[in-house]
């Protein structure tokens, strides 16, 4: 399977393979022939807005739902006929789903008890699990007496104690407040590196996905829009959706005019613009229309009056001070551009609303989108 | 192109984590729901159908049930007896329907203040208020009804108040009377309406009322247009729970009413008791059943229009 | 908008008073020293021991208890299974049968009573089974108890987080293990609550018992009815007081068991 221009399929063993999985609910198609391969030991995220199918896919992997068509292979074995309780897979649920009538200890021990593991071994492994997620302090309490973060850890311990081949996590940090979420993200990452098993993580929070994942699959309406490592997804989004879902982008309509060797020349509402040819992304011939995209942090803001290629005169319409950065909304005759500038110098940048500036769009930073 | 269903997995589902083939689901349904449904069907639904059949048979000389089939029983209920028009049974039916309707109206009137009262209590007191409402609901109706005989007896407080106010003769009990019957019915059925209505009030979206008031509507209009429509489903549920059993109520008219207040329930008891005319009694009972079925049908229509299931 | 005004307090106060007046009157008059009922003639507790000495009343009490316990046990088992089946599985005609299950809840008890009476008589004439008596009463009681138990159990199951059973399967439990270790403990309070309510229903029933009873199977409500027809006596009040107290205890117990353990449930009894 070719990803991001490089054939990765020979590299690491495949833990989970999804092969043209199709799932519909009545008229609604939740998964539209989705395929992907997840490697052993990877922290893999399914990222997308609500309704994109990420949770449905996760549940099919867990055995909690059945695909209408297509095959799921876990460790190379076709899992379609294997019921949930016999799959080497465990899930951490969004609502934690802790057993309310059992103590934390019994919750954690549950999986082992169901498999008739001897009590002595259970006791040791429970201790290890408790140690791993640091829930020793409330091991005899019932779930109702725990906070969200504590319940989260219990859910993790309960799942990991079974030593599954794959751990599935369904937006586990969604219900927590920001600070707690960030703390747990760090812990989760460390845990995964420690334990070394494959994690498949579902989230709608792009920042979370970027922080935690080795690779991300961006999903929309039952399809995978783009799959790859975090950096490559961010720097080379394929289409408008991905460019706006991970971070944000300035979008510029362009009509390609000429091929000038290492760059292409195009006519845009902002004037003539040159963009570099890249080995990724679609090739565009002169005479075609396309959409160019440039990340706001790549737009340089310079003093007014500078002329030159890819330089657009503009006025500052709005500025938002975020602390580490200042965000500018620049008004040009042709439209608006957003620029992020780092406040790397002490004191304000000295720019105010109404000031005239020049926006510079470096040709190497302009991407061609597929739509 | 839509995916073709994998034949191996056709009609298999995973529910609550468990794989169910179509056969497995059928087996489990039968084993779990089967016994209960069979029991109720055998001992109630089948007999009810039986009553329908029997209502078309005739009374024998000594009270047996015999052929021929006849619609004579129903004709009698409609007023066309052997000796020309006899309004007795049409009156009984009308009276029962009126009693049902009247009880419903009175219960509605009393339920509104109760529902809003309970909903307006702080959490602790709310539970207490609900519990206090539920307790009489589960207390023996026979006992509560005969207690009204004491409460309305000749020397009781209420009787004395009534005679002082000139509403009744001194020294006479306030029963049997239509008033006493309605009192007993209200006492019997108030929680049946108050509880569903309370549930609806509890779920009220007050922001709609606030918005209406904000836009200048006075209290009455706010109530009529912003609050009442939200309560309709709860009201309907409660009305069904009151109207249907009330039309067929036997104990209350029996203990608190007299010859002037013979209802469906009394009439049925009469035919199955002293008069030993079971076919005729069945016909009357069947009329009562008709009310039940119509009411349930209306309820399920209203419930389906709302969300999904009815009470079950 | 949520504060309760004074008129509302007064109206509700009256209504609560109205609802409890009969109960209070019965309890109070059970201590009435007047021999033949009627106005208050002084305080006495003599009627309570008198009940115990009366063979008829003791018989009726015994019958009522046997009837209550037997029917409750059967109805709780069948009703729980029904509630479970209705909430979990789909089958053809399910909507129709759910609708039918609602009939015993709303039907006037006398219509139900005569239908059953008719059934038992026909069966007796044809097959010799079902002589009117304790058996027929138990069969009848179970019939109207089942839907109530099913409703209580079903609403507990419907309110339960589906994820919990999914989690159990995910962790390796088979269907039976999940039911035994997870589902059953979680619905047990609802099952007990349903049982309590079923018992109360049986205890309270007069009309159905009246029509399906036979010689030697008189229950307390039937006894009370015949006595009331002849004129209310204080020992009947004493008997009624005891019945009322048992109902109240059973109802409270039922409500207690339905109290939500997790915040997901909607509080409050029968509904």
Strand content of chain A: 35-45%
- Trace the largest sheet of chain A across and list its strands: 8-9-10-5-11-12
What is the number of independent domains of chain A?
2
| Most extensive contact | B-C, 102 and 102 residues
Separation, N- and C-terminal Cα atoms of chain B: 40 Å
Q: Stretches of chain A where pLDDT falls below 50 for ≥5 residues?
A: none
Poorly predicted ranges of chain B (pLDDT <50, ≥5 residues)?
1-9, 308-312
Structural class of chain A: alpha+beta
The proportion of strand residues of chain B reads under 5%
Alpha-beta classification of chain B: mainly alpha
Keywords:
heterotrimer; B: 312 residues; mainly alpha; MetI-like fold; two-stranded antiparallel ribbon; two-stranded antiparallel sheet; 12 helices; 68% helix; disordered N terminus; disordered C terminus; C: 271 residues
Protein model, in words:
The complex is a heterotrimer of chains A (371), B (312) and C (271). Chain A is of the alpha+beta class and 371 residues long. Chain A folds into 2 domains: 2-240, P-loop containing nucleotide triphosphate hydrolases (Rossmann fold, 3-Layer(aba) Sandwich); 248-369, OB fold (Dihydrolipoamide Acetyltransferase, E2P) (Beta Barrel). In chain A, helix 3 crosses helix 4. The model of chain A has no long low-confidence stretch (mean pLDDT 89). Helix content of chain A is 23%, strand content 37%. In chain A, strand 13 (250-260) and strand 14 form a beta hairpin. Chain A is elongated, with a radius of gyration of 25 Å. Chain B is mainly α and 312 residues long. Chain B has a domain at 106-260 and 287-305: MetI-like fold. In chain B, 68% of the residues lie in helices and 4% in strands. Chain B has a two-stranded antiparallel ribbon. In chain B, strands 3-4 form a two-stranded antiparallel ribbon. A two-stranded antiparallel ribbon of chain B has the order 5-6. In chain B, strand 1 (13-15) and strand 2 (18-20) form a beta hairpin. In chain B, helix 7 packs across helix 9 (219-247), helix 9 (219-247) packs antiparallel against helix 12 (278-306) and helix 11 (264-272) packs antiparallel against helix 12. Chain B is globular, with a radius of gyration of 25 Å. Residues 1-9 and 308-312 of chain B have low confidence and may be disordered. Chain C contains 12 helices and no strands. Chain C has a single domain (54-258), classed as MetI-like fold (Orthogonal Bundle). In chain C, helix 3 packs parallel to helix 7 (134-158), helix 3 (55-88) runs antiparallel to helix 9 and helix 8 (162-170) packs antiparallel against helix 9 (175-204). Helix content of chain C is 75%, strand content 0%. Chain C has helices spanning 6-29, 47-53, 55-88, 94-101, 103-106, 109-127, 134-158, 162-170, 175-204, 207-212, 220-230, 234-258. Classes of the chains: A alpha+beta (371), B mainly alpha (312), C mainly alpha (271). Chains in contact: A-B, A-C, B-C. At the B-C interface, helix 1, helix 3, helix 4, helix 5 and helix 7 of B face helix 1, helix 3, helix 4, helix 5 and helix 6 of C.
């Amino acid at each position: 399977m070719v990803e991001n221009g490089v054939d990765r399929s020979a590299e690491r063993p495949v833990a989970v393979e999804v092969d043209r999985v199709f799932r519909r609910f009545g008229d609604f198609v939740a998964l539209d022939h989705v395929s992907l391969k997840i490697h052993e030991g990877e922290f893999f995220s399914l990222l997308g807005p609500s309704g994109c199918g990420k949770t449905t896919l996760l549940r099919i992997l867990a055995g909690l739902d059945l695909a209408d068509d297509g095959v799921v292979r876990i460790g190379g074995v076709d899992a379609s006929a294997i019921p949930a309780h016999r799959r080497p897979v465990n899930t951490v649920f969004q609502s934690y789903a802790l057993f309310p009538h059992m103590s934390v200890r019994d919750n954690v021990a549950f999986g082992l008890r169901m498999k008739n593991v001897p009590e002595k071994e259970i006791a040791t492994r429970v201790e290890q699990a408790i140690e791993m997620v640091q829930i020793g302090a409330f091991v005899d309490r019932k779930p109702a007496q725990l906070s969200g973060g504590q319940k989260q850890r219990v859910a993790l311990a309960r799942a990991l104690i079974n030593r599954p081949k794959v751990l599935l996590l369904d937006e586990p940090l969604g219900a927590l407040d920001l600070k707690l979420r960030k703390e747990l993200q760090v812990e989760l990452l460390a845990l995964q590196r420690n334990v070394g098993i494959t994690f498949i993580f579902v989230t709608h929070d792009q920042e979370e996905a970027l922080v935690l994942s080795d690779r991300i699959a961006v999903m929309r309406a039952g399809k995978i829009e783009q799959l790859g490592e975090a950096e490559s997804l961010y720097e080379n989004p394929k289409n408008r959706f991905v460019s706006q879902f991970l971070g944000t982008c300035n979008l510029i309509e362009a009509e390609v005019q000429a091929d000038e060797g290492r760059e292409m020349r195009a006519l845009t509402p902002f004037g003539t613009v040159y963009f570099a040819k890249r080995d990724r992304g679609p090739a565009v011939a002169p005479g075609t229309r396309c959409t160019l995209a440039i990340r706001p942090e790549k737009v340089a803001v310079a003093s007014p009056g500078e002329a030159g290629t890819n330089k657009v005169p503009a006025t500052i319409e709005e500025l938002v001070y975020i602390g580490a950065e200042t965000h500018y909304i620049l008004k040009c005759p042709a439209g608006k551009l957003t620029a992020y500038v780092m406040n790397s110098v002490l004191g304000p940048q000295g720019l105010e609303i109404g000031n005239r500036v020049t926006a510079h769009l470096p040709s190497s930073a302009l991407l061609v989108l597929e739509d | 192109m839509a995916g073709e269903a994998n034949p191996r997995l056709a009609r298999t589902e995973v529910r609550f984590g468990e794989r169910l083939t179509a056969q497995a689901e059928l087996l489990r349904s039968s084993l779990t729901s089967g016994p209960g449904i069979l029991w109720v069907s055998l001992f109630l639904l089948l007999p009810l159908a039986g009553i329908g059949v029997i209502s078309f048979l005739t009374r024998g000389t000594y009270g047996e049930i015999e052929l021929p089939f006849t619609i004579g029983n129903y004709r009698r209920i409609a007023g066309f007896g052997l000796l020309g028009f006899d309004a007795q049974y049409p009156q009984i039916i009308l009276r029962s329907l009126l009693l049902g309707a009247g009880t419903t109206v009175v219960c509605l009137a009393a339920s509104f203040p109760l529902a809003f009262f309970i909903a307006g209590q702080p959490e602790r007191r709310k539970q207490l208020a609900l519990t206090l409402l539920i307790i009489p609901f589960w207390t023996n109706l026979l006992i509560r009804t005969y207690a009204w005989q004491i409460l309305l007896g000749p020397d009781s407080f209420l009787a004395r108040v009534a005679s002082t106010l000139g509403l009744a003769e001194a020294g006479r009990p306030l029963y049997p009377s239509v008033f006493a019957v309605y009192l007993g019915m209200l006492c019997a059925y108030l929680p049946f309406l108050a509880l569903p209505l309370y549930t609806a009030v509890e779920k009220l979206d007050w922001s709609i009322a606030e918005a209406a008031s904000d836009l200048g509507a006075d209290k009455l209009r706010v109530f009529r247009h912003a609050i009442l429509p939200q309560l309709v489903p709860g009201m309907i549920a409660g009305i069904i729970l009151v109207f249907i059993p009330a039309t067929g109520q036997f104990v209350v008219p029996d203990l608190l009413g007299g010859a002037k207040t013979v209802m469906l329930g009394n009439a049925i008891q009469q035919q199955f008791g002293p008069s030993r005319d079971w076919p005729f009694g069945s016909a009357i009972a069947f009329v009562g059943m008709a009310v039940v079925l119509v009411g349930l049908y209306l309820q399920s229509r209203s419930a389906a229009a709302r969300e999904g299931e009815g009470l079950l | 908008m949520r504060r309760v005004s004074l008129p509302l307090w007064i109206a509700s106060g009256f209504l609560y008073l109205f609802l409890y007046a009969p109960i209070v009157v019965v309890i109070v008059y059970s201590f009435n020293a007047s021999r033949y009922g009627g106005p208050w003639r002084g305080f006495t507790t003599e009627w309570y021991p008198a009940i115990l000495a009366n063979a008829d009343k003791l018989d009726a009490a015994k019958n009522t208890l046997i009837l209550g316990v037997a029917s409750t046990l059967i109805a709780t088992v069948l009703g729980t299974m029904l509630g479970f089946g209705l909430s979990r599985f789909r089958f053809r005609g399910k909507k129709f049968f759910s609708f039918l299950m609602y009939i015993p809840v709303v039907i006037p008890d006398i219509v139900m009573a005569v239908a059953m009476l008719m059934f038992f008589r026909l069966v007796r004439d044809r097959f010799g089974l079902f002589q009117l008596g304790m058996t027929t009463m138990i069969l009848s009681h179970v019939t109207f108890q089942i839907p109530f138990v099913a409703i209580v159990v079903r609403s507990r199951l419907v309110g339960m987080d589906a994820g919990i059973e999914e989690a159990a399967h995910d962790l390796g439990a088979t269907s039976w293990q999940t039911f035994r270790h997870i589902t059953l403990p979680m619905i047990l309070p609802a099952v007990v609550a349903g049982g309590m309510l079923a018992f109360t229903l049986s205890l309270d029933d007069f009309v159905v018992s009246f029509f399906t009873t036979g010689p030697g199977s008189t229950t307390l409500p039937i006894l009370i009815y015949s006595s009331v027809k002849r004129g209310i006596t204080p020992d009947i009040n004493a008997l009624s007081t005891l019945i009322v107290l048992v109902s109240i205890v059973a109802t409270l117990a039922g409500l207690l068991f339905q109290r939500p353990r997790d915040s997901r449930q909607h509080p409050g009894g029968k509904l």
